[in-house]
Amino acid sequence: MTTPPTFAAPHKRIFSGVQPTGNLHLGNYLGAIRNWVTLQEGNECIYCMVDLHAITVQQDPAALRSNTREVAASLLAAGIDPKASIVFVQSQVPQHAELGWIFNCVARIGWLNRMTQFKEKAGKNRENATVGLYVYPNLMAADILVYRATHVPVGDDQRQHLELCRDIAQSFNSQYGVDYFPLAEPVIMGTATRVMSLRDGSAKMSKSDASDYTRINLVDPPDLIAQKVRKARTDPDPIPGDPAGLEARLEAKNLVGIYAALADKTPADVLREFDGAQFSKFKESLADLAIAKLSPITTEMRRLLADPGYVDGVLKDGAQRARAIAEPILKEAQDIVGFLRA
Ligand code: TYM
């Protein structure tokens, strides 16, 4: 196991979020959630189901509600301790949206026009994308800064959004002549910072991919995990002995990376272990490993979901604790902006 970085000074605070838009997949787990668990040791952590972000694209209301509970249960099952950390739902803490509006009036259209995730998600029909999708990164900055969080553990795909968060903090501070919002740093940890699709090594593993065979979901039963790994795309060559042999073999590289992350080893260690093996044999080991690591989480998640009252209670408590931190920070930000206090 890697030793967790500790940001123990009292003014250090960790915040991160996940969209409750469907099942969590291996990319979410290896790129983010697993690191959230590790970071709990010695740090103050706040973890959020970002439902306000989810509705930037159309959601079925009943599915959104049940996904929010499911994602919360997955976090708890993966090892987030709701007593040590704050776990809550974004829409239950209205301060996010209120600070988000202030940031809409700080961020520049030119900055948002550069966001690659908006371009990807809006696709060709940009005129038809919601305004919420466009200003999504401003709300994300508010999520972080309404707690004056200093460190944000995320996968590699969130890097650009975090740069924007820093730009917003800096711009707010300089516009109002204060040193109020911190320049939050991304914490991109581990070897699986960008887990790719099982079917296309050049595309990110994603909840929104139409084919379920592109991803391993935390709720997948063991036989489905094994089937997905068996069907994962590879090439005819055997496993090389060192990382140089994986260059230009995107799918092979991705599977080795997943194995390494799950086994807590480096890709070089994994290649030494499987040097010369055929992918059919490697995939068997990978499926066994994935099942061994994920099944306990799935089982615990199902146990938690059998008692939705427990999960809702955790979220209610989390929202109260989150509001207690966010409320005075929002008030101070409003004072800085010049709003008349009620
Ligand atoms: P979301 O819900 O897409 O993903 C949640 C976390 O999982 C990481 N991730 C991945 N990591 C590695 N490989 C992948 N294939 C992969 N797919 C997803 C993401 O990087 C993320 O850390 N905008 C955010 C949610 C958000 C947020 C925030 C995050 C809203 N406000 C404030 C941090 C701080 C998102 O859509 O994550």
Describe it.
With 342 residues, the protein is mostly helical. It folds into two domains: 13-193 and 307-337, HUPs (Rossmann fold), CATH 3.40.50; 212-302, Tyrosyl-Transfer RNA Synthetase, CATH 1.10.240.10. 52% of the residues lie in helices and 6% in strands. It is built from 14 helices and five strands. It has helices at 26-39, 51-54, 61-78, 95-104, 109-113, 116-122, 131-134, 136-145, 159-176, 222-231, 250-263, 267-274, 279-305, 308-337, and strands spanning 14-18, 45-49, 86-89, 151-153, 185-187. The strands form two sheets. A three-stranded parallel beta sheet has the order 1-2-3. Strands 4-5 form a two-stranded parallel sheet. The protein binds tryptophanyl-5'AMP (TYM). The site of tryptophanyl-5'AMP has 25 residues, from strand 1, helix 1 and helix 8.
Features:
mainly alpha, globular, 3-stranded parallel β-sheet, Rossmann fold, binds tryptophanyl-5'AMP, Tyrosyl-Transfer RNA Synthetase, 342 residues, 2 domains, 14 helices, two-stranded parallel ribbon
- What is the CATH class name of the largest domain? Alpha Beta
Shape: globular
Largest sheet: 3 strands, parallel
Order of helices and strands: EHEHHEHHHHHEHEHHHHH
Helix content: 40-55%
Ligands in the structure?
Answer: tryptophanyl-5'AMP
Number of domains: 2
Low-confidence region ranges:
none
Count of DSSP H/I helices: 14
In percent terms, what proportion of residues is strand? Answer: 5-15%
Tell me the name of the CATH homologous superfamily of the largest domain: HUPs
Averaged pLDDT, please?
95
Over the alpha carbons, how many angstroms does the gyration radius reach?
A: 21 Å
Q: How many angstroms does the end-to-end distance come to?
A: 51 Å
What's the number of extended β-strand segments? 5
CATH architecture of the largest domain: 3-Layer(aba) Sandwich
Category from helices, strands and their pairing: mainly alpha
Please name the CATH topology of the largest domain.
Rossmann fold
Could you give the order of strands across the largest sheet?
A: 1-2-3
